Structure formats: structure tokens, C-alpha cells
TrEMBL record:
Reutilizes the intact tripeptide L-alanyl-gamma-D-glutamyl-meso-diaminopimelate by linking it to UDP-N-acetylmuramate. It holds the Pfam family Mur_ligase. It is an enzyme of class 6 (ligase). Its cofactor is Mg(2+). ATP binds at residues 112-118. Keywords: ATP-binding, Cell cycle, Cell division, Cell shape, Cell wall biogenesis/degradation, Ligase, Magnesium, Nucleotide-binding, Peptidoglycan synthesis. The lineage of its organism: Bacteria, Pseudomonadati, Pseudomonadota, Gammaproteobacteria, Cellvibrionales. The keyword Transcription regulation does not apply. This is UDP-N-acetylmuramate--L-alanyl-gamma-D-glutamyl-meso-2,6-diaminoheptandioate ligase.
Amino acid sequence: MKAHIHILGICGTFMGGIALLARELGYRVTGSDASVYPPMSTQLEAAGIELMQGYLPEHLQPAPDCVVVGNAMTRGNPAVEYMLNRGLNYSSGPQWLAEHLLHGKWVLAVSGTHGKTTTSSLLAWILEYAGMSPGFLIGGVPANFGQSARRGDSDFFVVEADEYDTAFFDKRSKFVHYRPRTLVINNLEFDHADIFPDLAAIQRQFHHLVRTVPGEGQVIHPAGAAAVDAVLEQGCWTPTASFALDTSADWRAEPLQADGSSFLLRVPGAEPVTVEWGFLGRHNIENALAAVAAARHVGVPPAVAGEALAGFRGVKRRLELLGSPNDVYVYDDFAHHPTAIATTLEGLRAHVGQGRVIALVEPRSNTMRMGSHREALAASTASADAVYWYQPPGMDWSLESVAAASPVPAQLFDDVEQLAAAVAAQSKAGDRVVIMSNGSFGGVHQRLLQALESGRTP
């Protein structure tokens, strides 16, 4: 009989990926979550995974061989308390992944505050294009694969390496479990104010990660990034390679178009490679540089990586075009931090030139809801022509000061229908509207698309 694992918090992107991988490995997989709904629920059910609504002790009867506990689970949760009281075997998602799949693999881990999902997706696609059939676990859905996780048919495994804590019983960052041979540190800023008191605390976790990379591995990092340099100065026993735009870094890129849609790769020991692709912004070129460098560490020639970049189809919710009703282009972007908001809007601004860019922003991450980034929020939208701020329910502070300090015309709403109506009424052909949130934003995406399609407000 197949071993049975039950996953608590199965509908999160990471834990859902664990479920899919476990199913591929031959386990019987069940799971429960507070919110069981598409698209993750349909993806899991299609894989033969039984889903249960809520966290009832009955879901753990009869006892599974192992309970895999998501990091959203807390003491006091009925299923967690039952698990502990009955002495059931349990593990965290990262620990289970490390023990059952990553052991013996060449792990390529992508870490950093921004760009992890895109860079992981780029790296997995480059390896796939090169015929290396990697496994992967990514915190998003790369369009080239149509799924967030797979076992793969080789010794190579790409993992998005998150610094968030592992579980209620393991407060180390998830990524310390992965033991990568190739490590990318994309960038490093203060984030996750709900679990880290300051940047130094995050840097300490990154230092722990660096300690796990073997001397025959490689650490790939941005040139001249003080916060990352400080991590490496705490101790690094592994060769490093730097990347940057227009500097003397080991891996360099020169934008050929201001919007980042084409660039020249200058790589160590090889001819320059020209890349033309459908993505915008200097930040995405940096993501591509990191992915190409990591791929080279496992043997992919830069020219092959450049060809792969031209065929990259992106990641859902990363400046994803949802539609263009009446020539108003509506994008969805997973903006979770002022830097992410700014770089996305800067790239789009360079692409459209004098065309209008309108931003709809919901500060939804725990860090932004706590107000840790309030001083940087207004300036982050400077590349837009107008910004509509949404005050989500339960937020600890008011966005009135952010709207008042805006460098561009700004309006504040606390009602999604009114927000969609206002944007639809003021949009015109040729506008680019970017909906920026790491959540569902109250369904504003479909409300706005429908309003624009019908030519009326919701």
C-alpha cells in the first residue's frame, strides 16, 4: 500500500506544489485548507488528490503516515492540536521536500526579496530548452510549463527559495532546508515585517543559507548590492559570480531598447549574445542574467540560454496581460513591495513612452499592511500617470497620507466596485492599466474588464 501523507494548508502555491510532487513520487495524498477553490483546487483534484474544507480532526482519521504542515498553521488550529495530542508523525513542507526529493539532486535555488518566481521560471525553462528535463517547485505558474511543480527526469532541481519561516515548530527560513549547489541571491531588502524585526535578521538567515552551499558550488549575486555583500562578508566558502547591468560584473547586460525588450549579454569566456524577448524593465534583464549564470554553472552555453529566453512565455500574475477591451490594456501584477511596484511601472513606462499608465494598488502584504513601507509607497508610483489606491479592510493604518504625498494624481477608495467604476469611466483607448496586488483585490480584475468591454461602469 502507498504511504499516505496529509497536507495542512494544501491550497497555498508552495504546499500545493509539494502535493503534486508527492503524488508524482507515488504517495497517496490528501489535504485540507480553510479555502478550497480554483485554480489550485482543480489542479490538485485533477492529479487525484482528495481535498477537504477546513481543519477538522476527522481529516486525520485514520492517521496518515505523515502530516505535512504548512507555515500558515498555528497552535490552536484544531487539526494541529489533534496532531500533537495524538503524537502523529509530522514534518514541514521544506523538510519533507528536502528529505524525499532533493536529497542527491543538484539543487539550483533562487532567493532574494524580488524576482524569485520569475528567475526560477526562467532558469527552469532554460534547462528544459537545453534538454536537461529539470524538476522544479516555483511559487507561481510558468506559462512554458503550465504547472508550479514537477519531479523532472534528471538530477537537476530548481526551487524558489523563500526566506519566510518554515512552520510553527521551525522558525528558520524555508530555504535552509534545500542545501543548494547553485545559489542565486537576486537582491535583498527589508520585508516580512511580521516575522523579521529588521534587515539584519533577514541577512542572518541568508548567511545560514550561504553556509550550506558546498565549496564546489557557486553563489550568484548582484554586483554592488550592499545588503547582499554584507551577507557574504559574514562568511562565504564558495566561489561567487556577480551580475549587473552596465558594470564590470562577471555577467553583464546592456539594454538595446530602453524598455528592456532586447539586450546584449556579455558573458565570461564567450561571445556576446543578443536577446530579443517580450518582457519589460531592467529588473527582468537582471532576472535573466541571474538565470543564465546559474544555467551556465550546470553546463548550459550562454548562446543556448539566449535562445531559450526568446521563447520564455512569462509567469502568471507578473505583468500578465488579462485583456484589452476597447484598446484599454489591463495587466495583473503580483506587486508586494514598493521596489516591485516601482520597477514594474518604470519598465512599462519605458515601453509605452508618452502613453498613459494607470496603476491600481492594494497594499496587501503583511509588511505593507503593518505600515513598514508607508514612507516609500507614494514615490513607488512616480512612473504612472495616475494611481488609484485601495484601502483593504482590516489594515492597521490609513492610506490617506500616501495619496496626499503622491507625485502623480491619486485617489483613494475602500470599495472595489466604486474603484472599478472610477477607473472604467476615466480610461481611454491606448491606456495601460496595471492592477497591483499579491491577492485577489476583491475581484477588481474581472469587474474592470467587464466594464470596459461593455463600455459602461460596473
